[in-house]
Fold each of these.
Amino acid sequence: MAVILFREAIKRGLAEALDSNPNVFIMGEDIGEYGGAYAVTDGFLAKYGEDRIIDTPISEAAFVGAGIGAAAGGLRPVVELMSISFALVAFDQIVNMASNLRYMSGGQIEVPLVLRAPTGAGVQLGATHSQSFETWLAEVPGMSCVCPSNPYDALGLMRTALKSKNPIMFAEPALLYGTRGEVPDEYYEIPLGSANVQREGDDVTLISYGAGMRVLGKVADDLSANGVSAEVIDLRSLSPIDYDTLLTSLEKTNRVLALDTARRTGGMMAEIAAELQERGSEWLDGPIVRVGAEDVPWPYSRNLEQESYPQPADVLTALKKHFNI
Amino acid sequence: MASQAKTKSGKPAKSAKRSAAASKSLENGATGAGSYSQDELLEMFRQMCLIRQFEIACGEHYAKGNIRGFLHLYIGQEATGVGALRPLTDQDYVVTHYRDHGHAISRGLDVNRSMAELFGRKTGLSKGKGGSMHLFDAAKRFMGGHAIVGGQFPLALGLAFSQKYQKTDGVTVCFFGDGSTNQGLYHETLNLAAVWKVPMLFVLENNGYGMGTAVERVRAGSPDFYTDVDRYGIDAVEVDGMDVLAVREAADIAIAKLRAGEGPLFIEAKTFRYVGHSYADGQKYRDQHEVDEWRRRDPVEAYPQMLIDHKLVSKKQIDQVKADVDAQVAAAVKFAEESPEPDPEELFDDVMA
Ligand SMILES: Cc1ncc(C[n+]2csc(CCOP(=O)(O)OP(=O)(O)O)c2C)c(N)n1
């Protein structure tokens, strides 16, 4: 068991694939000579060479699209976007092309593409650079979408992503690259669609993913200091979603709060709340409560950004208001 | 614009790369300088000096954590922004990318409020909501500060369209970097601008790198960009972006032509940023020697020296400008430091009308 950084876990997953499968290559902006905007691919160019570590121009639509084509042509591309906000420039390719090709062709064409991108707010990058479009892509049929919250999950999910036969959005919370966690030496994978019960508890189920798990960790600590036992669940996979794990927890605690660090309206947690009430209403002791970022663009100013970004105190206030805990 | 710049081979002779006026200035600084009043010559220096000192202060306050997020400095490129914007009047629009402090200052945006914006304060140009990459001042027709590479092209196109539609003789200047020419929107906008014949000036600041990627590593064909636009029938010129008078004269000619309905036009300024792409950049992709070479032609040093050498201004006048600029930047920092943060309720302001 070693303690490694989140960025190193992703790097390890990529390196394993590069080492074992000659059809794996990585492309994106400044991933080679520069070493990657968040240093995930640092050193790869020297090790794997420029045929497999490809610095692209700033042409997201073209190189994401080319990744789709290369995947359809039998390769296993990993395409890095410097930010998930820049995915917008390539959205047509991702949605209309990558995720539709299998279906439109009656199953003839396969697009085993891993699309990686840092996501989320919290570092004062302002409206254009702080968004969380994994929540949009999670809604698109024909592709999967994951977002790890710790190095263990990042490596396990990356291994799975690199074996997937479908396009997959691998969203990496930018706030977490420098965080650490334990990763075993033995090989393991984390299947798609498996949520993780990070903490067991009886009184309330707290659900989030990615950077939201840091917020929930603090909330659960606070609750337990006051004698409330929270069950904390990390979705890990946004598409597909592991409803079995969520419903099992709901049946036990009868209360659910779902947290999104992205905007509250139209987010992941709206979908989860709808599904849980439909399938588990007999177990519910109250409303399914959502906490999320405010429905405004992301401001630059630190205090405004923190005002919008959901804080542990916001979650505690919501729990008090709705469940009196 | 110099029609010689449009050659079939795409490889014009060196002198043909420049407009007549610009090359006059390049070959004989004093001659070029002779076409401007002493006040104007000093004003160009003052702006370059202000941009430089403002940004040095930005770097210091980034290191201290007063400025956060991404900070892209313009240090080294000052001559381009200043030279290109001097011919503008109040009716003209300016659109740029995230490396926007130099353009903002040159357009005359309030330095105190610019610094306050970088500090994320209530008194900032955008009330602290935009930050370094998203500076705006609509009253000065400074329409951003845009941080999605290439995203600014169609905005500028539409502004120029509105000017033509409303039959003003205003023009729109759009700044962009070499890296952004790899976005489809660059090509799409060039085409539409030419089809619609809008009064738009494309000003490419070719600093040799898009973040850590050297131009030639991701660009096919000629390393010159100004020849690209032949295809659209747009007149273009290349200028020395380290020479404020060269840029200025090219812009003088271009803006006059645009006002006369001869748009769109294109200027490629060859320039260099001395510092990293953003504050976090370790610059592994280039060596210090290259940086030093460009620095030897530093416009903030070489230009005032040339003016002094040709007795167009005195050393005393230059020193006075420097002292004034230092005081102005110190005052801007103080203003930003003393300004309050936005009130929490302001989070919800300005989302919709
Ligand atoms: C669509 C998009 N892709 C990538 C980025 C990240 N990025 C910001 S600036 C930049 C380099 C741009 O280079 P260039 O256009 O030459 O301008 P310069 O920074 O040199 O002034 C990159 C890759 C971005 N902001 N937007």
Amino acid sequence: MTATHSVTTVEANPADGAGSKLGWAAADSWTMTRRELAHWARQPVQVVVGLVFPVMMLLMFGYLIGGGKGIEGDFKSYLLPGMLTMTMAFGLEATMLSVTQDLGKGVIDRFRSMPMNSGAVLVGRSIADMLQSVVGLTVMIGVGYAIGWRWSNGFASFMGAVGLLLLLRFAMLWIGIHLAMVAGKPELVQAVQILVWPVAFLSNAIASPESMPSWLGAVVEWNPMSATATAVRDLFGNPGAVGHSWAATHAEFLALAWPVALVAVFFPLAVKRFRDLSR
Amino acid sequence: MSDLDPAIVVEGLRKRYKDKPALDGLDLTVRAGTVLGILGPNGAGKTTAVRIMSTLLRPDEGRVEVAGIDVRTRADEVRSRIGLLGQNAAVDEELSGRQNLEMFGRLHHLGARRAGTRADELLAQFGLTDTGSKAIKQYSGGMRRRLDLAASLISRPQVLFLDEPTTGLDPRGRTEVWNAVRSLVGGGTTVLLTTQYLEEADQLADRIAVINHGRVIAEGTADELKSRTGGDRIDVVLHDTAQLDRAASVMPGDVHQDRDRRMVSASISNRMAALTETVQALQAAGIDAEDIAVRRPTLDEVFMQLTKEEAA
Ligand SMILES: Nc1ncnc2c1ncn2[C@@H]1O[C@H](COP(=O)(O)OP(=O)(O)OP(=O)(O)O)[C@@H](O)[C@H]1O
Ligand SMILES: [Mg+2]
């Protein structure tokens, strides 16, 4: 440690216009995304476990538990869209866990003391989580295909279904980030990890609302997860639960509206929280 | 900014946590190119002050300018001119040292290529080249601290904040950090460092501010502070408590006895002369000492003295 320093402050952004600001925001977000990708590269086991868990659930429900309650026809065709929906929804806890862990780390202080874009940490997280979800969906659809699931409505509908699934994941992502910042304690993450199960079962992801008491059926039909699962089944051309309520017959609309509304609420809240962190 | 302008100005800084004040009207001025050491016990408000000056925390009241820029209203401009070594490590434990430095370089908007060369430069400077590709969580505490310091130097900051930079380091690590700070200051960087060690402030700082309960209670050069607190001390440990009184009576200077530790100590002005005089006086009185040591006043002593003055 003998090198001498010259104090030529590195002039960061010579042109400080609005355009360059946006450019730096994008560059910073990409740097933060790369950070997450580097984490994966250093913890491949964790990444694989994250991918294998939903596949395991799919196989368990598909083979061990067998036909769902009140479902006519091929259960696997009913199950796969439900499991895809559930996997996207459970992304909430994954995001919440990583943000909670991240906020507890000193490195966040360094980020906040640097001239970087203040939202980049969150945007980087969301890009990385979305990439992870794309990989996760691909794996699950591949496994689904291998065990006999098929879709029958052509490529455009297929992509539409995938789009709705990722939209749900995106909404869950911002809820997860916000929850982590409001109450980011490991105990709370655990509570959420448990609570997502009853919420998932209170949807038509796995069981059909037909088999439930009517008041519960109504709750289930309005669950955002049900909207996505139903819409995805329609788009894939897979058998769905036959409901007659407004929510059941407008599933496509709700599968768009629910996540968009959730993002509209939680995205600004989360960004504001992060800006105000420890102020 | 000319060399005579202050690099840091803090005026009437206040910050409360719940109803307990952490900073209670703190005032500081640091001239560009100099080192200010902030000395204070646990809970004095050192970290709170550093976090406010480095834009991490908003003050309740008061004015803070770093490099002539208001930290509240123009935080981003301040951020591109400062480096921060926080009290706790601020690096990504999962990534390697090199990955960390490169990432911080990119976030300082050096561009991908310069971020890479700067990372290698700093790894070499801090003797971390060999371990550069290991994850930080496998680093020793000292290595982690050095990497953290390297990370705070990425942008060649005008003003550097160091919050207890050497706490937890071994003597060699401490000397290394001290040398790094000296070479930075040689290059014109302004440094504000907090410490609990008088020795450290003594080694590095041009001026020292002693703070307690969120306020400056004394400020000056190391010599000025030491003379206010009675300068160096000599400690004599005896074999036999019975001889304490006799030893105290023959020793020169303002003498205190500590029965529990079988120790007599006196404040002194000239180290060599005091040592010779004391040894001669004890020998003449036929008193055998177990241990004799000349030392700087401890932070405790400076502190007790200063708080005594404050109360008076
Ligand atoms: N986040 C916080 N919430 C509540 N109180 C706090 C918080 N941070 C600091 N304090 C309180 O503010 C006071 C000053 O704390 P600070 O960390 O600035 O002291 P310090 O001089 O850095 O101490 P140390 O030498 O232990 O690092 C202390 O009484 C501390 O308990
Ligand atoms: Mg502290």
